[in-house]
Amino acid sequence: MSQYQFLLWEVKGGIAYLTINRPDKLNALNFALLDELRDAVRTIYDDESVKAAILRGAGDKAFVAGADIAEFIKVNEFNGRKIAENGQEIMTMIENCPKPILAAINGFALGGGCELALACHIRVASTNAKLGLPEVTLGIIPGYGGTQRLTHLVGKGRAFELIMTGDMISAEEAWRMGIVNHITEPGATVSKCEEILSKILMRAPVAIGQVVETVNAAFNETKDGFQVEANSFAICAHTHDFKEGTQAFLEKRKPQFNGK
Ligand code: COA
Prior knowledge:
Elements: E1 7-12, E2 15-20, H1 31-46, E3 52-57, E4 62-64, H2 69-72, H3 80-96, E5 101-105, E6 108-110, H4 112-119, E7 122-126, E8 130-132, H5 146-154, H6 156-165, E9 168-170, H7 171-177, E10 182-184, H8 189-200, H9 205-217, H10 225-237, H11 240-250
Parallel strand pairs: 2-3, 3-5, 4-6, 5-7, 6-8, 7-10
Antiparallel strand pairs: 1-2, 8-9
Helix pairs in contact: 1-3, 3-4, 5-6, 9-10
Bound molecules: coenzyme A.
Coenzyme A is lined by residues 25-26, 28, 65-70, 108, 110-112, 134-135, 138.
């Protein structure tokens, strides 16, 4: 994976550690970085040795401070839609990934960086993290799914206020609003993610993938979430892991799931 210019990729114990690596620019997302991110996310889907991923930013100042504003000056009415759709597609790939992807937010998560964190399944922020969607201060709006995902998480009124003011909020406020799941001391976000994953990775992988499918269906108006749930339940019922899980319970032992 050394082909990446702006990402670091390492797999340890089934967890892919994906680091956005442009610390001198607070890990701002330029277009080349987004291409690399798409490739890395595809690898999370495809590589059987990868069971989960943790996304983080290099350095101790930022997760990601947004889309690269220096590049954004090239955005115009002709390419704007394509640029937003490209970013949305990558974020949606993360959101729909059947393997858990956690964001370790170690500082600024602004604009596209906040949208990237919002696309992850679970967010852990350090006490010094700052989150926000400041796009209106630049004359645009969030275009990588932030208007939708923030609204889903916090409701309309709070989403309007955060997006219209462009305010940055503290980790504490983000936790109170339900944007982040946990707050840790600086430097401890990744270990908190690992602690959460240590539980998730003991569960049946097919069931975890179906949790992603069904919870996401609750926010997809084109889908009947209850129908999706029933289908997902049937998919799980068909697995070896379901037989193993129930049998292990009855035999009072720990299940040995194999993801089949
Ligand atoms: N795009 C491009 N470059 C960025 C960037 C972004 N989103 N965010 C930070 N940088 C660059 C700065 O230009 C600076 O580069 P330089 O050293 O070559 O001048 C470097 O990262 C450090 O940032 P700096 O602004 O000096 O740090 P700071 O601690 O004073 O301020 C922020 C931190 C996050 C408050 C500030 O960088 C900021 O407001 N960034 C933009 C946030 C934003 O609007 N994001 C949404 C984009 S759609």
